[in-house]
Amino acid sequence: MSKNPDPNSSGPSGSAGAGKPAGEEATVKVPSKDLKKKDDKKDEDLSEEDLALKHQLELYVERVQDADPGLQKVALESMRQEIRTATSSMTSVPKPLKFLRPHYGTLKEFYEKMPDSDLKTLLADILSVLALTMSAEGERESLKYRLLGSQGDIGSWGHEYVRNLAGEIGQEYAKQQREEEAPIYDLMELVQQIVSFNMKHNAEPDAVDLLIEVEDLDLLVEHVDSSNCKRTCSYLTSFAKYLPGPDDMLVLDIAYTIYMKFEEYPLALVTALALDNMQSIKQVFTSCDDNLQKRQFCYILARHGQTFDLDEELCASDEEREVLQEIVNNVKLSEGYLALARDIEVMEPKTPDDIYKPHLLDGRASAGANVDSARQNLAATFVNAFVNAGFGQDKLMTVPSEATSGGSSTSWLFKNKEHGKASAAASLGMILLWDVDSGLAQLDKYFHSTDTHVIAGALLGVGIVNCGIKNDCEPALALLAEYVDKDDPSVRIGAIMGLGLSYAGAQNEQIRSILTPILGDTKVSLDVIAFAAISLGLVYVGSCNEEIAQAIIFALMERSEAELGEPLARLLPLALGLLYLGKQESVEATAEVSKTFHEKIRKHCDMTLLSCAYAGTGNVLKVQHFLGQCAQHLEKGESFQGPAVLGIAMVAMSEELGIDMTIRSLEHLLQYGDQNIRRAVPLALGLLCISNPKVNVMDTLSRLSHDSDTEVAMAAIISLGLIGAGTNNARIAGMLRNLSSYHYKEANLLFCVRIAQGLVHLGKGLITLSPYHSERFLLSPTALAGLITMLHICLDMKAIILGKYHYVLYFLTLAMQPRMLMTVDENLKPLSVPVRVGQAVDVIGQAGRPKTITGFQTHSTPVLLAAGDRAELVTEKYIPVSPILEGFVILKENPEYRDDN
């Protein structure tokens, strides 16, 4: 290369493409008198063959302008040959393009003068390629000459040329849309060619991007084949997260169509669930003939919490239909969970002291811990329930009765005061979680109690046991319905909340007819109405049911100003929001109506509705809207900024990038926000990293847990429990132990520390609260609804959780799921196979077949999967029926497997 700068190149390396976008003209103004000298100097630096090539090309340029068409043709053909065969390194422009730079203008002028002929189109082809490095920015000359040229095989000029053309088509299309000028058919012809070329050459993302730009994604379906169907769809589904509605749904719909076309049924089902389209879900069932696959579909539906009734059309054989319905109803969940617990050897019940580890604390704190106060016993009740959740045995509630008549479980029950007994009785439901038969049998004894709080707790316990499990006999409805109209408010709340938990997402008509009248009853106390609304919101989550929405709206309008100021009144707007969970624009009519509410709750309702409707969509404009609301400094005690902060987290929780950006925004809110914003920030952080303890978030919450404002400290402590939920994270456990000795004199803060300790060891570390599953692609609406309800309640801890409504903590049951991979054989019996478990790697749009996990360890199933983990089979002896290895996965034997031994 020359030491002197080359006047015709765009940079020190003489490369026109380096450092400049393709298609940008790179000319350097040079005083004309130096040109001759520099040209000579440049020629001296070239090697002999380069010099020969340069003179050869200059000769072709002269010959092209010759009068003899024969000579012209030979010159053009030779020039084309030179350009096509020239190879270049990654950093430099092919030599023919470099040497033809000075003649680009000359050739363009000559092209204009040429009469129409085959030669003219041939020259247009060559100009189109030359324009790749020489056309001025924004001129789109490469595209112009391509359309004037021979329209021949586009790939023969190379990938860079095709990519540049695609970029120019996007710009041209956008311009035509803005100015609404000439039709765009000529572009579409070219788009077809480019897409076809890209799909054949492993550049699926480029093809998708081009079709998105020209708004014609349907074209994709005909160009996909079985070899690139998964790569294309995984790009579509991952990129749908970054699109505004309704485009995101359109993109998912195309992915669904492609999966169905190539019979990738499990992935089609997952996409149909993301679309929340019942028709598509049924279509997957009817299109697939394989019973094993249908069983796997049912496991996926059960994990998502989707209520689904199989009929003859979906499965002809009665026997098989019964098996499938059992799987959808989640009846086997408890069995699988206990098999996992036995395998990991954690069946031994744990006591609250095993969790608190008082022997590790210094003197002053452990001295205070021995005081047998009702508040401490209540905390121990929750810790015991969370830690032993689903194990069916513990050391407080299910101990067999010894000498004492009535058994010792009642003795623990009566170590709790009044409403504390309700939570204690309900905790039995949590210990027997998912095991409906034993659960109902053991709760039965409390129904004969004379204490209304015990009965209320037993009713709630029935709801907890049935949470996420469907049953054809509907025991929950049969047991709870008759208690809904009792006089005692605590009994009514127990029955109502029990119905909400056991039928969340079921859209059950009977429950609507039982609960809706309560909303319109003016004599009923506010707390009963609030819980009735929340239960309806849970049962009809995301259904946009107008009748229920109206009933809740009327209930809100009926209330007096004093009542609207109460913390529980805020559950009404939340219930309204749950009806529109994740449904984006569908909320607009209801949001308009909410503007007519009393000013005390108007803004609060608006924020809550918006945050629920856009939860999990990643909609950037909504996040900005919420941030704008948080920027206001309020004079009087308005409460809408809390839901706005939670709204930021709810909208942005859909993908990693959004989560990281939101964590940073929340840091700013902590520094500059008012007190009511600071109280909500820890809860928002808890939602963003639920069951996924990120170190930076852990440190922030640890700092806030010592805040001078007790509300902020309590929210931070609960959030430490949420981010560590079910992970047994040692660092969080240590922080909470230290906090228990730091706050040992303050009953309220200590209570929160205990709850957080229970959450960290949820299910002895086998349960997650994350609403996302299927490799973080699907968001379970019922799980999210439970979490949101809990967080909204935490916005006013003192009045609700630290008051007499502490049993609202059981709303978390909705989000509880075993974080396991359980492999079963074709008869659905557990089958242990070796799997690698490691950190999932995002390989979307990468070339070749990159590894999908990193830092893996090999275990035998069943195995635990932490946040961000992914598993893959080690053995080729079995083929998983579902490509997503999470929850229950059916393995079938590989017919081609040969055992070498």
Task: Please explain how this structure is put together.
There is one protein chain. The strands form 4 sheets. The protein has a 4-stranded mixed β-sheet with strand order 8-5-11-10. A 3-stranded antiparallel β-sheet has the order 7-6-9, with no helix packed on it. A two-stranded antiparallel sheet has the order 1-4. The longest helix is centred in the N-terminal third of the chain and has 21 residues, at 159-179. The chain is mainly α and 901 residues long. It starts with 31 loop residues before the first helix and ends in an 8-residue tail after the last strand. It is elongated, with a radius of gyration of 33 Å. Helix content is 56%, strand content 5%. Strand 10 and strand 11 form a beta hairpin. It has 43 helices and 11 strands.
Quick synopsis:
The chain has 901 residues and is mainly alpha-helical. The protein has 43 helices and eleven strands.
- Structural class, from helix and strand content? mainly alpha
- What integer value in Å does the Rg equal? 33 Å
How many strands in all? 11
Helix segment tally: 43
Largest sheet: 4 strands, mixed
Features:
single chain; 901 residues; mainly alpha; 4-stranded mixed sheet; 3-stranded antiparallel sheet; 11 strands; 56% helix; 5% strand; disordered N terminus
Outline the secondary-structure elements.
Blueprint: H1 32-45, H2 48-64, H3 69-85, H4 95-100, H5 104-113, H6 118-134, H7 141-148, H8 159-179, H9 185-200, H10 204-213, H11 219-223, H12 229-240, H13 247-261, H14 265-275, H15 278-287, H16 291-304, H17 318-328, H18 333-344, H19 352-356, H20 363-369, H21 374-387, H22 407-413, H23 418-431, H24 436-443, H25 452-465, H26 475-480, H27 489-502, H28 509-520, H29 526-539, H30 546-558, H31 561-564, H32 571-579, H33 588-594, H34 599-613, H35 620-630, H36 641-652, H37 656-672, H38 675-688, H39 695-704, H40 710-723, H41 730-742, H42 747-760, E1 767-768, E2 772-773, E3 778-779, H43 781-794, E4 817-818, E5 820-824, E6 834-840, E7 853-860, E8 863-864, E9 869-873, E10 878-880, E11 887-893
Parallel strand pairs: 5-11
Antiparallel strand pairs: 1-4, 2-3, 5-8, 6-7, 6-9, 10-11
Helix pairs in contact: 2-3, 3-6, 5-6, 6-7, 9-10, 12-13, 13-14, 14-15, 14-16, 16-17, 21-23, 21-42, 23-25, 24-25, 25-27, 27-29, 28-29, 28-30, 29-32, 30-32, 32-34, 34-36, 35-36, 36-37, 36-38, 37-38, 38-40, 39-40, 40-42, 41-42
